Structures are given as C-alpha cells and as structure tokens.
Amino acid sequence: METASSAYDWDLVVVGASFAGAACALAAAQYGLRVCVLERKADPGARLHTTGIIVKEAIEQTWLRRVPDALVQRVEHVRMYAPNLRSVLLAAPDYYFMTTDTPNLLRWLASELRASGVALRLGQSFTHARREGVGWQVEGVGRARYLVGADGATSRVADRTGLGRVRDHLYGVEQEFAGVVLPEAGALHCFTSRRFAPGYIGWVAQNPTGVQVGLALRHDPARARQPDREGFLAHVRDAVGLPASAQAGATRAGLVPCGLPDGPITAPGVILTGDAAGIVSPLSAGGIHSSWRHGWTVGDAIALHLRGQGPAPEGVAAGAAPRFRAKRVLRWAMDHLQMDWPLDLALQSGAMRRVAEQIYFHRRGMRV
C-alpha cells in the first residue's frame, strides 16, 4: 500500500496540456490528487500539431462528450480519392467523426483542467528532473511522486529520464481557410498520391470555422523535404470545390509518430503517454482517442495506487499501450510499396474498399 505523502509538493506533475496530458490530469484530479500540468505555450490553442479530428468513440465514451456544440462539426462520410482524382464515398452505419475548432477546443480543455482543481502552468517549459527517493525533483516545480511525459513526438521528459524515444515520424502541415464552406461539407476528403504525400495522405475537411487542408509525408531526417502545399492545393481545389478566392490563414505543422519508442515508456515514478509513447495509429496517424484513453488510464492508475487500491501504475501504463500490430504491416506496405497506378485502377474494387473501411471506420462500412 502506498499513500500520498506531504513530503511531496505534488502527487503528479504532467508535462503537456494536449489530449493525453489533459486526460491524465483530469483522471487523477477526480481522486483529489495534487496535480500540476506544465504547458510550454502561453496559449494552449497556439502553434498546434494536431488536426483535431475526433472519432465517434472519443466523443461518446470520454470526457470529450462535454465539448461545447459550437466547437465541433459532425462528418459522416469519407470521400476517398485515387491519384487521378476519381473517388468513392464511404460510410459506416451510425459512424461519424467530429472536426473541431481546435484552438478553442484546447483552450476549453485548459478551462476544464482548472475547473477540476488542476494547477495549470501555461508558458512554463519542462527543463529537467532528477530522481529523489521514489519521486522526482522537477526543476522550477518542486517534488513530485510521479512524473508523466505527455509532451509530444520529441519528448523532453523521455530524453531527460532515459526512456524510449520515437524515431519514426510523419511530417504534416495543415492550412486553415476561415469562413469557407465546402459543397460536400459532410465528408472527410482523403487523397492518396505518391507525388504529394509519399507514405501518407492529403486531406480536406469542413470544420466549425472554415476548411482545413492538410498534407503529410514520411519524414526522413537525413533527407527532409517540405510538403508541396501549393501544388497539392492546386491539385485538389476543383475536386473539393474550394473557391479560387479562398485564402489560407493559420498554418499548423509538426512531426507525427508512426512507430514505437526505441525503449521503455515507463521507469519507477515516470511514465510516457500520447505521442511521446508512440500511441498513434501508424497508418492513419489518428491519435486523439487512443492517447486520451491511455492518458486517462495512467492518471487513474496513479491515483488508485497512491490510495492503496491498485497495482503499480508503471505496469498498468505499459500494458495499456496499444501495439497496432496489423496497422504496422500496412504501414510497411505504404512505406515500401506505394505506387499511384495501382490505386488509380483499384479504387472501385471491393478489396480496396474493405481496406479503407478498416482504416477509417475500424470496421466494415458501406459504399454510398
């Protein structure tokens, strides 16, 4: 049995206030733990690294069901485009996605943390932590029994504590077109193209404030290349009905993990979650739902353990991390076998449709 001790300033320090970090902090706070969250950005909605597209399960099964209606927009279909821009419309019974006003969604999450009694320190970066007894001395914060790194694809917590680092990434960039409405606003438009998106896809989606246009490709640190945003936009503009007069506004960009860390995600008193732990689908790069679930599991396990009601959270966290084994096979195929002409020919086939349904809907859907 282990109980929280007054020898510590905090029961839990979480680094990162995005989805995984917020979930971890909220879960722990429900038990009355003393929780501090460090977020290096002064504005949690600035300089984003996420598309903010949320799957049905996350909306219906997690804290995110409380998101204000004004911050989300329901999308029920996926229109999948071959490189030659032929397309097929996919759907699954009762399935949907939510696109979001992502900057304000993350600001709302920050308000939820504060309302739950979490000490949220905006504009404060994690710099270093050293082990002190069974806990950690976190520079600029104080003594903490547990330290959780939810600080993204290039986690400083992982680096400073000797945990595994994710080495395989995609690099994505997304532009916002404020106030624009697509003719087919109820679909997530997804584009395959070895020219524009080797190793991944491009996408166009309606959100509550306008249209987001994104492009991602396999990241090679030795031969890094910038996505051809202008070329991609010219390629897809007419297909999705984006007006020629629409002007790009805010841009978000960053690395997205598509592999597992090269070492453990836990050590005594420290745990990684979210992107820092590689908890992102290696194929779709979707991570909000899985990161939220893992972050919540970590926060819940820490609280139960400190209350003497559960096993060591390090083991719980390691066991709860998804492996995405089947999707890693498809990731290998996308990295090594992607060609445009087979996709041009196969888009309408049943086999291609089943693969797409598994990726986007996690189960068999239907073509409409």
Q: What is the total domain count?
A: 2
Question: What is the name of the CATH architecture of the largest domain?
Answer: 3-Layer(bba) Sandwich
- How much of the polypeptide forms β-strand, as a percent range? 25-35%
What radius of gyration results from the CA coordinates? 21 Å
Q: Total strand count, please? A: 19
Unreliable sequence segments: 364-368
- CATH class assignment of the largest domain: Alpha Beta
Cα separation of the termini:
56 Å
The CATH superfamily title of the largest domain: FAD/NAD(P)-binding domain
Oligomeric state of the chains in view: single chain
Task: Describe the fold and architecture.
This protein has 368 residues and is an alpha+beta fold. The chain folds into two domains: 1-40 and 124-167 and 258-331, 3-Layer(bba) Sandwich (FAD/NAD(P)-binding domain), CATH 3.50.50; 52-98 and 169-257 and 338-368, 3-Layer(bba) Sandwich (FAD/NAD(P)-binding domain), CATH 3.50.50. It is 29% helix and 26% strand. It has ten helices and 19 strands. The protein has helices at residues 19-29, 56-61, 102-115, 156-161, 229-240, 288-306, 313-320, 325-337, 340-346, 350-361; strands at residues 10-15, 35-39, 54-55, 72-75, 77-81, 87-91, 97-100, 119-122, 129-132, 135-138, 142-149, 169-178, 187-191, 202-207, 210-218, 251-257, 266-267, 270-272, 366-367. Strands 1, 2, 8, 9, 10, 11, 17 and 18 form an eight-stranded mixed beta sheet that branches. Helix 1 packs parallel to helix 3, helix 1 (19-29) runs parallel beside helix 6 (288-306) and helix 6 (288-306) packs antiparallel against helix 7 (313-320). The N and C termini lie far apart (56 Å). The model is unreliable at 364-368 (pLDDT under 50).
